[in-house]
């Protein structure tokens, strides 16, 4: 027997015998993180801690700046997320709440490079590990906080290099950095700016199911089906059936490219399979001050450009990309007798094929399962 699968983005499950009523079936795509409001915007308040004063400039013109350690505490949460400035010329407005915005609307350049810097900088890489992997040395007299300030300053300098075209001085880049801060900050900066790579954007994440057109019924099970995911491993659950691998062992999670088979529960006429890929939402989410006072330039901290300093999230946040595939069974028109042969796949033009209305598809006699892929929006925790 063969599974001929039709897909639709609708969530409707077609029950036993209802398939022939379909006039058309549209192909549905994979579950994707690129859905409207797939990630709930974050709002929060800015907190600051002392950092290092960096020496640098724009194309030879000196412009020194403090790399204070910045954090954002989301409303309703006690956790403080590490953020970086991506707007070096605009003072920070600490009196205004910040809300997540769109990178395209921020007017900030080089998202790909900045995302890579943050993904490979502090705190995604531990402070001491980052300094040492960059070829620097951690002064044994530094406290954990001082080590973090150095790693943060080197990462912030690299961010400014791409967002504002600002360069860190090679000679004494840290004002008063006589205890090893100079060399360590410069090493981190160079490490993060010399050859930036690429970190995927969440909109590129998908979860899909392959095999609908080729899976067959053999030895009491349907398959194989193949999981396709660029968002990591996919946890699977089934109702009305059990899922197993090639050896018949039960499965709970599969990586991209791995296969599974479906074994129906006794008496089952419908099967629902849910898959969830859990991933870290990559860094690179932009935050802007939100109140009218801040945006008008009348906040407690005077804003030279009439707008608030832009910030970018440094830490990944966990996200989930759910997908669902539903199957409904349509019994064969002519069932075999106890002594007769089992129905075979019809050849083209066989009388065993029943045309859908309008001739848009064919229903193959025999046990046929139709899977309906349902798109669902991703959620972030």
Automatic annotation (TrEMBL):
Boundaries of each Gram-positive cocci surface proteins LPxTG domain copy? 345-381
Could you say which residues form the signal peptide? 1-33
Q: Could you tell me the keywords of this UniProt record? A: Cell wall, Membrane, Peptidoglycan-anchor, Secreted, Signal, Transmembrane, Transmembrane helix
List residues traversing the bilayer.
352-373
Q: Which Pfam families match?
A: Gram_pos_anchor, TED
Query: What name has this protein been given in UniProt?
Result: TQXA domain-containing protein
